[in-house]
Amino acid sequence: MARKRKGNPVHGWVVFDKPLEMTSTQAVGKTRWLFTAQKAGHGGTLDPLATGILPIALGDATKTVPFTMDADKDYIFTISWGENRDTMDAEGEIVARSEARPDLESINALLPSFVGDIEQVPPKYSAIKVDGRRAYDLMRGGGDVELKSRIVHVEALSIVEHNQDSLTLKMTCGKGTYVRSIARDLAAELGVCGYVSYLRRTRVGTFDETNSFSLDDLEKLCHRGGVLEALRPVQAVLDDIPVMIVTEKEAIDLKFGRAIATSLSLDQTGDAETPPWILTMYNDKAIALCYALEGQLAPKRVFNL
Known about the structure:
Layout (H helix, E strand, L loop, with lengths): L11 E7 L5 H12 L4 E3 L8 E8 L6 H5 L3 E9 L1 E3 L8 E4 L6 H7 L5 E5 L8 E2 L2 E2 H6 L9 E13 L3 E8 L5 H12 L3 E11 L2 E2 L6 H9 L19 E3 L2 H8 L4 E2 L4 H4 L7 E6 L2 E9 L2 E7 L3
Parallel strand pairs: 3-12, 14-16
Antiparallel strand pairs: 1-3, 2-3, 4-11, 4-12, 5-6, 7-10, 8-9, 10-11, 12-13, 15-18, 16-17, 17-18
């Protein structure tokens, strides 16, 4: 007999505004405890020294985490000039100093080269795995790593504030883009030292500061028994996926893993290599994420809501 999972069957997303120095794992654990949820996960790690939007999935919302990971993100970050640090943020040890400071004209001339598809080497202090171990664990253990460059996409990069000792930027970027690498490479191109002294994520896909909750907000809701007010539906991250309303019988078939017929045209259903996702709904509830192919919808992720 299977062991009963501890907690309640809570399903949905919490748009958590992560405070400074809390890890993403701690944020997930705290949120899961406040909701007494059976299962939880997050949609994109935030460093302890970063604040801002950390989408937390509860219950069956964890089945949609990849869609959040792939979403565009907005950041506000400050580069402080004059020092290079091994972690490229305020936590690290100083490894170089310089009195050189970039002028605004040079910064404005350089920023366009950091927009679009760009080549970027991730920070050595990152969660990327090398031979099965996290790069930051290898570095903190006294080792060294060589990480390969990758192509990432920066949609927009603009100046928020500039003074002699620092530069604050706003960036919209795609999956896998490291803010610390942007700062490192920008400083190197300008011929100065610099590190990220402030970092805040303000948006992940459809989740932003306008619909977020701080830890204090969640605790207050919990104390008055209203914590579920902070819960967004499972399908909240699937806003760009076509929706098909199904009948009760079709919903039952999908929940049992059986494909159903669809009248979607061939150009909508794609081909075997790239079948598009279709979200099926019944009575305003998400039933399953399906692949659409050759006149059928095949359930790939079924929701038990």
